[in-house]
Specification:
Order of helices and strands: HHEEHEE
Strand content: 15-25%
Strand order of the largest sheet: 1-2-4-3
Shape: rod-shaped
Number of helices: 3
Distance between the termini: 139 Å
Radius of gyration: 52 Å
């Protein structure tokens, strides 16, 4: 094939071919960049969806853990309340011996002391027996009057043998609590 075109036309055709090649190359690069951007956009959307899903799962697990911890502490409170209720019901009918001992020790005269304290609980009352030492009969008499004045103590009795000596008396006392 013989090309009879003038040289200027040949240059124009060659320039248009080069332009077409450059345009095709640029369009190819542009399409590649657009597809790359679309791909990156879809990857970002996918990853953000996955991230939100993981956040929701973590929040759900955290809520479940908190709920479980709350449930565990609630169960522990129930157990402790039950134990406290059992203790309360156990001590409900029992006499308050610490108060009784405080009242007895408050009434003991100077230089006297208790040697033995025993008590027996009955269905209705508590029977208490004390034994101790009094330096004089006068202090024993004062102690007896103080004990008889207490309205919570019933049947305060001292055996007659306690009154036989006037010094260094080993006494015994028995009474019942209301």
């Amino acid at each position: 094939m013989i090309n009879l075109l003038p040289p200027q036309e040949k240059k124009d055709i060659l320039g248009r071919r080069k332009l077409k090649l450059v345009l095709l190359f640029e369009i190819g690069i542009l399409l590649f960049l657009v597809s790359l951007l679309c791909t990156l956009f879809f990857v970002v959307i996918y990853l953000s969806g996955e991230l939100e899903t993981e956040k929701l799962l973590m929040a759900e697990k955290s809520a479940l853990i908190n709920l479980q911890a709350f449930s565990d502490s609630q169960n522990r409170v129930k157990v402790l309340n039950r134990e406290f209720s059992d203790l309360t019901s156990f001590y409900k009918g029992k006499p308050k011996l610490t108060e009784l001992f405080e009242r007895i020790y408050a009434r003991l005269p100077e230089h006297s002391y208790l040697k033995n304290i025993s008590f027996v609980t009955d269905a209705e009352r508590v029977k208490v027996s004390l034994s101790g030492f009094m330096p004089t009969a006068e202090s024993l008499l004062v102690f007896k009057r103080e004990m008889e004045r207490d309205k919570d103590l019933l049947g305060v009795t001292f055996p007659a043998a306690d009154w036989t000596s006037s010094k260094d008396i080993d006494f015994t006392l028995s009474f019942e609590l209301k």
